[in-house]
Amino acid sequence: MLEIIKGAGLLIYPLSLCSVIAVYIIIERLYALRKGAVLPDDLVDAIIEGKSPQGGRHSVMARIVDYAGRHKGDPEAIKAFARLEINRMERGIPYLDVIYIAAPMLGLTGTVMGLLRVFGQISPETGLPDPAAFTKGVSLALSATLIGLVVALVAIVPAGYLSRKIENDAAKIDLLLERVLSTQAKS
């Protein structure tokens, strides 16, 4: 394993940075998007039943309901605030998208660097590369590519999951917001 990391050469630093950033974003978003932080059951139940919501005051939906309560009669402002809250839920996801696209590109850069090293070491007398330089160049090429793909895989699966979760939660928020606005219109 250490040989693979060493074989990646200087590209290990940006690939490591991508990996650390991706893991941080994934953990932070999983925590921030847990059910109780977005749509707590007691709050959802109260909205569905048309009651005054009491629980989950620090959740996304609670902030929307609170804003709606302070801005009765302005449904467009309330909907705009809900869109802002949904945008906040998406925080960090575009960076994951960049990471899972950039990491393989960094790996491919390592492939090109390794191949350049191999072909740059061709002996004019024999027309063949030096075996040691050939091995090191191929190692750099394959190691950087492997690490880039691993970093991309670490980012792409959670990015897809988190994006889908945000879409689902946003649809639920829209539905519940319509219920809140309907209840406000009746009162």
UniProtKB/TrEMBL annotation:
Stretches assigned to coiled coil: none
Domain MotA/TolQ/ExbB proton channel: 72-172
Main location: membrane
UniProt KW Transport keyword: yes
Official protein name in the record: Biopolymer transport protein ExbB
Transmembrane segment boundaries: 6-27, 98-120, 140-162
Recorded GO CC terms: plasma membrane
Keyword terms of this UniProt record: Cell membrane, Flagellar rotation, Membrane, Protein transport, Transmembrane, Transmembrane helix, Transport
Subcellular location: Cell membrane
GO BP: any one term: archaeal or bacterial-type flagellum-dependent cell motility
Transport is among the record's keywords: yes
Family: Belongs to the ExbB/TolQ family.
Membrane topology: Multi-pass membrane protein
Pfam families tied to this protein: MotA_ExbB
Highest rank taxon of the organism: Bacteria
